[in-house]
Amino acid sequence: MNLSVGLQVRQSQSLVMTPQLLQSIRLLQFHHVELQAFLEREAEANPLIELAAPGLDPSGEAPFGDASTGTDGDAPPVWAAEAPPGAVTGEDGGAQAFTDATHSGALPHPDDGEAFLAAPRELVRGGAGAGESGFDDRLEGLAEAPASRSAHAVTEIADIIADARERRIAEWVFADLDEAGYCPADWAERAERLALPRAAAEAMLARLQAAAEPAGLFARDLAECLAIQLRRRGRFDPVIAAVLAHLPLLARRDFAALARLTGEDEAGLLDILREIRTLDPRPGAGLGIGAGLGRTEAVLPDVVVRAMANGAGWQVDLNAAAFPRLLVDQRYVQTVLAGEPTADERAFVSRCQQNATWLARSLDQRARTILKVATEIVRRQDGFLHEGVSGLKPMTLMDVAEAVGLHESTVSRVTANKFMATPRGTVEMKFFFTVAIAASDGGEAHSAESVKLRIARLIGAEGPGAVLSDDDIAAALKGEGIDLARRTVAKYREALGLPSSVQRRREMNARRLAG
User: Fold this and answer.
1) Is the pTM above the cut of 0.85?
2) Does the keyword Transcription apply (predicted)?
3) CB 37 within 8 A of CB 54
4) Which residues pair with 419 in a beta bridge?
């Protein structure tokens, strides 16, 4: 066998993902909050990048400046991309206020339980600022959203428990209420960390449950929440206790099983049902409403759709408030170069200038791509804008990708975590992509969302003597030209949170007897 060395020339092609290309792909799928945070990090590392507040400047120029001059000069508006007829461009999308909640609302975990309890400091009622108590950093922002429930809990604990040491324990163990107003699920673990016996922790919890307002606060589950409220009314007895211990049976209106378990007749169970209906299963849900108790977090749409004045189509605009403005400071470059910089300094400035310019272009391309995809969605979903969900047409990512000349994965990134404000409300752009349900008569296919709406309407129109089974619903839909199997009807009904026909019939009978 002979071995030899030779040279060969081959030509090949390969796709290389440059850092700039990867950055552009990430920017496409960023939510506007994530995008703002990313740009702030870039501005910290790059002295040439300047961030301005999202939106148009007073002169009405585009959200992005000219990367070559560092001013809002002659750069074309980012929404001046090609769009199908019916889309008018160049207006501000009408920004909404947006609140980015930054506090978790959770009380801090002490490193040392004994040291935590022995520290000579107390929480101030309301949880906002402790003055000289030394607890400012631990409860900073407790009275701000979304920690308003915890702040209310701290106030209730201070009213109920007078001893400073016990109050501090209760604040640590029980103050982190969930959205319903129930005490934290890990309260037993917190008590154990502080070497608090289980019996003592349960006694402290019972004190809070007995006196806290609104009634039901600090409950561990739904049954206990209802029991607390019934005790306050003097209506808690062994029969009601047995009913609360079997709430799933009550939810299904299975009065026969409840009668066997409680020994109560159907009329008595209906009285109990009427009483339970007057209770509040989520006593903490309203604590975020009102001054000082929290703020509502609004959804900021990326695209705004309005009907044109002449009624000839729809106007599709980018919401300038959702697109941060980035400027490249060329004066900084001139200042550095005028001072006879070293080779390393020149390389650094050149690299920063290149990165900033590329980032500005990527943001501009991101805005153009979002507008292009949104305009195509509006063109295809004209029925939704006129009629609502019933007019929604089946549409896939591939349909839009082929229409706008993009890859399917690009359309997926563009529509991820993006919202569109329409005359029918603000919806996520992913909402418009639904599977097609074949028509039984061979006509135009129906979208899954519109079929769900029809199922909900059929169930909503039921009467006490005309409850539809899944087979009945499938037959009714077939009569409307929608070919849907019974199991698919059941799947859509469950996705809507609607009970079965047996449960609905029991509910109607219970309402009829209770009324």
Assistant:
1) no
2) yes
3) no
4) 428
